[in-house]
């Protein structure tokens, strides 16, 4: 069985002159819960890009728009898959994520996966591939023939279709100056960090043995967060504590909830609690079944 190491980097970028609304910085995606930002629009989408060694990284792109529709902030959560094990923050692995993102940006290398439409496309599962529904003759095919080309044309394996999208459609154009103005990977990582908000950059690491931990990336190193993460076939749970305040707590909770839903059946039910005291010492607890 092939094991993968999963690494997540979350950061947030705003325009050179951040837009504030009342007492809140509504350009921050995680302010979407504030009532004073109700006239702002917040959207999230999941895109993919290739790593530098053949796997695929995921990227949650969270966009903030002003009441006029102008993009004023973008929050990014990276989910990176890597071979081998990782028992502590690995700077080489983190740098690879940044470099792969930069290359995808420069080479229009972003894509999405969507469900196959059986009324328009040949769709396959583990056992058969079916002709497009509505054709005069409905046929089924051996999936192996679909892989080999056969007579079935371009089949969409397991009902997923990969569509290439532009950098603009990926929602990351706000980072153009940083991407094109950086030297090596370390320089890019440092400059990208300077474009982000004060919220620490969150990384999720999944070890080869099945354990998980979180760390915070400051652009130079990643510091592990105390607590535990567990992901099984039909459940997921997290208990984490830190001293980075409620904004970071909300960011951690939102990412973990989205990531858990991606790994589990989306109809699973999650419960959560978040607490912070006056010293910004916080906990987030999340359980999904």
From TrEMBL:
Q: Which residues form the signal peptide?
A: 1-22
This protein's name: Uncharacterized protein
Instruction: Name the species this protein comes from.
Output: Aliidiomarina sanyensis
What UniProt keywords are attached to this protein's entry?
Signal
Q: Taxonomically, which superkingdom?
A: Bacteria
